[in-house]
Structures are given as C-alpha cells and as structure tokens.
C-alpha cells in the first residue's frame, strides 16, 4: 500500500467552502502505471488521491482513514474488485463510501453482477477522462445529498428528543391535575382513573366540594388528541378547581359567607359561553357533570355529549342515566338539560369516557354500553372503588386482546355513596 498522494488542486470542485465536500479518492489496482495515470486525471478534476496496489491494502487504508470514493479495478490477484466492494460494505465505516468498479467488459450480466455486489457505478476501460470526471462528480453529488440527509436526520432526532422531553414534562404536569386517586367526602368516597393513550391526553376527571354535604363530580373529554387537547383539558381544570373555589365556575358564593354549587345545566352554559368568547379556539369537549347531595342521595346531572353515566345499585342492578345533549363549546348559546336520580347507601355512580364504550374488540365491534354494563357487573363485588376501577380496566384490556393498546384515553370517576 502506498501512502496517500497529496497534490495541489488546480480545479477544485464546486462548494469548496463546505467542510463536508467529498474530495478523497482511493484508487485500487495492480498496475502501478494505470494507478498513476488515473491519479493524475483525478487530481486534475480537483480531488485528493491515495493509492493501493491490492484489495487487502485498500481495506487496511479504508479502516484507518475511510475515503469518500473508491475507484477499483475489477480483476486483481487475491481479492478482486468485487470482493473488495463486498468486504467494504461489511465494514462499519464512519461514512458511506461511493464505489466505482472498473472493467474492460460492458456486458449487461457483468454490470448487474457489479451492482448486486454493492458497487455504485461501473467504469469501462480504457478510461475516458471526461467520463471519469462525470462519474466522480455524480458520486460527489450523491455523497453530499446523503450527508445532508444525515445532518437533517440528526437535527430531527435532536428535535424529537427535545419534544419527547417536553411531552414527558407535560405528562407530569397533567398527572398533577389528578394528584390523588381517592378522595373522601364525609362517609362517601370518590375514586378517579386517568390513562392517556399517549404521553398526554385530553380527558379530565375530578371532584370537589364546597362543604355542607354537597359534591361536584365531573368527567370531561376534549376533542382530538395530543398536546392541544391536553392544553384545553388543563385550562378547563382551572374552571372546576376544587382547591380555589372562588375561581370555580361551578361554585357561587352565598351571602358573602359560604360557597354552594350551581345547578349542572348552568355550569354547562357558563363553560359554553366561556369557550365561545375565545376567538380562534376550535376545540370543544364533552362532559358529564353531576352534583350530589350526600345526605339525601339526590343526583342532578347534565350530560353534554358525554357517554351515559352508569348507576350500580347495591342490589346488583345497573342503569344508565342521562339525556344526551350537545358538547360544550360546539354551538354558541346552546341549552343544556338536567336529569335527576336518587342514590341509596351502597350505590355507585360511574362517569366514564368513550374510551371504554368505543374500545375495539378483536371481533371488529366496539365494547358498547352493553359491554360496559357487563364489565361493571363483573367488577361490582369489589369492596373498594379503587379496586373496582382497576378491575374494570383490567377486564377491558383482556377483552381487547393481549398487547392491544387503547386508541383513546381511558378515564373514569366513581362515587361510592354511603349516605
């Protein structure tokens, strides 16, 4: 193997100002005269040249300092040019090496054999200087595009890594909106479930109480998925804050002394007006919002496009409640209706997202309301609300099939009413 030959560049290739311009060419061949002749032509074309008298020597040189391009004779003693190409493709070089194979024959079968062996181009001997320059220029263009794509890919990966980091932080922030799964309100208890299908989701569940034996319970599903839905869910959580009741749209102050719950239909109307007042916001959300008198068991519910809540009686009976209705923020000046029910000690009220009822089963159908009723009846014997929700989720995933991920967020709010 000869040392790399360095020459002045009388006619450097275009874009010389870039550090990544492919300029290093390795010439491989048994004939010293042929190598020197090619070297002069390559240098005149504006490239740096190194020479190797055999495939073995060329491999050693490529391992030490990989060139940008290789121009190799096909027929050589020991490893021939095609074997060199295959061996080079098997090496883990720092960058892609463009390989030009020289042959005295131009039959289609030989051309196909060379390309199949990993060569990028073939050059017929005797070498025409103009053709050699054109083939090298074509190789340099391809290498520049490959490196540009590699740079772009690296930038995209860096951007994706930054986005993933932001999404992970957003996931933690969104989790903080449901900081505790279990809340006690007197003797009754509320348990929450929140399982986004991605890193962040558009569902929201929660409960709050202004005191005096009353409770507000809600489940919300913002349209769409991803970051925009998550931002809207975070915004709505501020409207229904249990920590800052003076900012909660569902609560009003009475006689400047205490807070009380607004009627559910009024809450839906206020939220609808608030979204309608924000120009440029196209998102809307479905909502099931209930107020519960923890002393009498009276439930008042507004169902704004959300799936029908389910009452699980202590006797084992299951019944859906609700009257349908429009989603919040979809139509200006929308009107919302309320329905009422009465809970007895031991009954449960389940608000859930459509991630349950619209879950796809292996048979191609959705779980539906009948399927949810079946899963809820199976989970009903669970003494604690947390175990009930965990069992509900576990049974849903079992019916969906092993390894099948939910296509929508899964959320639920469960009230265990104990009088």
From TrEMBL:
Q: Which InterPro entries does the protein's record reference?
A: Bact_Sigma-Reg (IPR052016), CheY-like_superfamily (IPR011006), PPM-type-like_dom_sf (IPR036457), PPM-type_phosphatase-like_dom (IPR001932), Sig_transdc_resp-reg_receiver (IPR001789)
The organism's place on the tree of life at top rank: Bacteria
Q: Please report the stretch or stretches of sequence annotated as the Response regulatory domain.
A: 24-140
* SUPFAM superfamilies in UniProt: CheY-like
**Molecular function terms from GO:** phosphatase activity
Record keywords: Electron transport included?
no
Q: Which residues carry this modification: 4-aspartylphosphate?
A: 73
Coiled-coil intervals, chain numbering: 142-173
One of the GO biological process terms: phosphorelay signal transduction system
Q: Which UniProt keywords apply?
A: Coiled coil, Hydrolase, Phosphoprotein
Know the name of this protein? Answer: Fused response regulator/phosphatase
């Amino acid at each position: 193997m000869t040392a790399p030959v360095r020459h002045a560049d009388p006619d450097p290739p275009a874009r010389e100002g870039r550090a990544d311009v492919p300029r290093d060419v390795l010439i491989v061949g048994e004939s010293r005269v042929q190598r020197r002749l090619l070297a002069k032509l390559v240098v005149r074309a504006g490239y740096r040249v190194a020479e190797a008298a055999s495939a073995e020597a060329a491999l050693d040189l490529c391992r030490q300092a990989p060139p940008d391009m290789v121009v190799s004779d096909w027929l050589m003693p020991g490893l021939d040019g095609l074997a060199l190409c295959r061996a080079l493709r098997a090496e883990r070089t720092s960058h892609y090496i463009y390989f030009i194979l020289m042959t005295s024959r131009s039959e289609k079968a030989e051309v196909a054999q060379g390309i199949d062996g990993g060569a990028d181009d073939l050059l017929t001997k005797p070498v025409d200087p103009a053709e050699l320059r054109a083939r090298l220029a074509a190789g340099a263009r391809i290498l520049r595009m490959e490196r540009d794509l590699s740079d772009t890919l690296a930038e995209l990966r860096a951007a994706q890594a930054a986005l993933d980091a932001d999404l992970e932080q957003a996931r933690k922030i969104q989790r903080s909106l449901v900081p505790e799964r279990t809340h006690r309100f007197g003797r009754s208890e509320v348990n929450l479930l929140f399982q986004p299908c991605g890193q962040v989701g558009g569902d929201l569940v929660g409960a709050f109480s202004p005191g005096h034996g009353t409770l507000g319970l809600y489940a919300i599903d913002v349209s769409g998925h991803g970051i925009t839905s998550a931002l809207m869910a975070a915004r709505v959580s501020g409207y229904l804050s249990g920590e800052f009741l003076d900012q909660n749209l569902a609560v009003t102050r009475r006689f400047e002394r205490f807070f009380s719950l607004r009627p559910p239909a009024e809450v839906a109307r206020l939220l609808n007006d608030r979204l309608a007042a924000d120009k440029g916001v196209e998102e809307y959300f479905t909502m099931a919002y209930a107020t519960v008198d923890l002393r009498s068991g009276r439930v008042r519910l507004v169902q704004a496009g959300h799936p029908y809540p389910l009452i699980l009686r202590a006797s084992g009976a299951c019944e859906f409640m609700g009257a349908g209705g429009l989603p919040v923020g979809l139509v200006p000046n929308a009107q919302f209706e309320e329905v009422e029910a009465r809970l007895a000690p031991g009954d449960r009220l389940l608000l859930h997202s459509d991630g349950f009822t619209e879950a796809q089963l292996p048979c191609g159908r959705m779980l539906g309301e009948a399927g949810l009723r079946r899963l809820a009846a199976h989970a009903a014997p669970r003494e604690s609300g947390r175990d009930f929700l965990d069992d509900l989720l576990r049974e849903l995933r079992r019916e969906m099939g092993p390894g099948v991920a939910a296509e929508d967020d899964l959320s639920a709010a469960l009230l265990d009413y104990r009088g």
